[in-house]
Design a protein that fits this description.
about 400 residues; alpha/beta; 7-stranded mixed beta sheet; two-stranded antiparallel sheet; globular
């Protein structure tokens, strides 16, 4: 497997197998060319995702409803004095519930988003010695734990709530939501890595084949080629720099009747660009590789008998978690997602066996995936696609 290493932190997020290596090289070489020419660079000052509104703190504070809270507390089964690792602090809903449920539990609160960590720091002030904020990626977690003298095999419970947080989705300036107009950013790390390409850089730079492969592999989009063609055609006229601009470009490649023809899990109309936004977000943030890194670190950090709860929101994440807990070899993760399908773009071929596969590291607390109750979905519509998998560390 070819891996392209670039020294800057942002580009390490884009380490890929042979297909994606060519994609990233093309992206970065163009960035260097633009810098040399004194034109608009793909990152840093002048980036397509730069916007003054991106740095304006939002005053909106929508209520944060943690997903599947009752189930998480039940399966984590936290006891007094235990140490819990919340790998995705986000708005802090799960951590706050843990602190309230168990009076002397300690929570290590990790997030890659500096905005989330600022909330964790506020919570730490309110709960001295009980909350320890950690800013970093899943792939940085092992070093972060070592820096605060947390040894391998010493943590009692781990919660990993994958994907984009409600806080990120609710703020238009972050560029995650297609229903709210904002800069086409999608970087979960915010400005932590100032040279990290954003979603606007991706859609305005990569060629048709690269875009189609990303949409197919990470969005499971059946019409990836058609959408990629529409993006390439549109950017020839004007760069695509806004979320609703991209949503309109995608919608324009379909008949009007098809724009909301798709349904979500509540059978509500879903915009035809939803999978495109998902694919770009996963690619920009290297989410699947990061998820795999996080699962490996959770396995190392948990003590024997420790509990793991993982919440996912789409099939790519859930299949990865399922296979990891079964003990499958995921070392070739990117080749798995970018394997050539029948139309020449990346599609995953799921291989299942009839017998349950066992892992030497994990004992499932529930063999089947756990889904939200109807009442939970009614209270928090974003829980509709949530899936919870729980396991005990052997």
């Amino acid at each position: 497997m070819m891996v392209f290493h670039i020294s800057t932190p942002s580009c390490r997020l884009f380490q890929r197998t042979s297909f994606a290596v060519r994609t990233v090289q093309k992206l970065w070489n163009l960035n260097l060319h633009l810098k040399t020419a004194g034109l608009c660079a793909l990152s840093g000052p002048g980036s397509l995702c730069k916007s003054e509104e991106l740095y304006t703190a939002s005053t909106e504070k929508p209520p944060h409803v943690p997903v599947m809270l009752k189930e998480v507390l039940h399966y984590l089964d936290i006891q007094p004095g235990q140490v819990v690792l919340d790998m995705t602090f986000g708005g802090g809903g799960h951590t706050k519930a843990i602190l309230k449920a168990v009076s002397d539990a300690t929570v290590l609160a990790l997030d890659r988003d500096p905005t989330a960590i600022s909330l964790a720091q506020e919570l730490a002030k309110e709960n001295p010695d009980r909350v320890k904020p950690l800013l970093g990626l899943f792939s940085e977690l092992e070093a972060l734990l070592a820096s605060i003298n947390v040894k391998a095999g010493s943590i009692d419970a781990v919660l990993l709530d994958a994907g984009c947080s409600s806080m990120q989705m609710d703020h238009a300036e972050r560029g995650f939501s297609l229903s709210k107009d904002g800069p086409l950013d999608m970087r979960m790390d915010g400005e932590r890595f100032s040279d990290m390409p954003c979603a606007a850089d991706v859609v305005n730079t990569l060629d048709h084949l690269a875009l189609a492969s990303i949409l197919s592999a990470y969005g499971e989009e059946r019409h990836a080629r058609k959408i990629a063609s529409a993006i390439v055609e549109s950017r020839r006229v004007n760069p695509i720099t806004r979320t609703q601009q991209l949503a309109s470009v995608v919608a324009g490649s379909f008949p009007a009747a098809a724009i909301y023809a798709r349904k979500d899990r509540l059978h509500r109309p879903a915009h035809v660009a939803t999978k495109t936004f998902q694919a770009l977000r996963i690619f920009v943030n290297d989410e699947l590789n990061e998820l795999h890194a996080g699962l490996r670190t959770a396995r190392t950090a948990l003590k024997s008998g420790g509990r793991l709860c993982v919440i996912t929101f789409h099939s790519l994440e859930d299949r990865l978690v399922k296979r990891f807990l079964q003990g499958d070899d995921l070392s070739n993760l990117e080749q798995y997602h970018f394997g050539l399908g029948r139309q020449g773009v990346g599609r995953e071929k799921s291989v299942e066996t009839k017998k349950d596969r066992a892992s030497v590291y994990w004992h499932p607390l529930q063999k089947k995936v756990i889904t939200p109750e109807k009442a939970d979905i009614k209270e928090n519509a974003r829980a509709r696609s949530a899936k919870l998998r729980v396991a005990l560390r052997c």
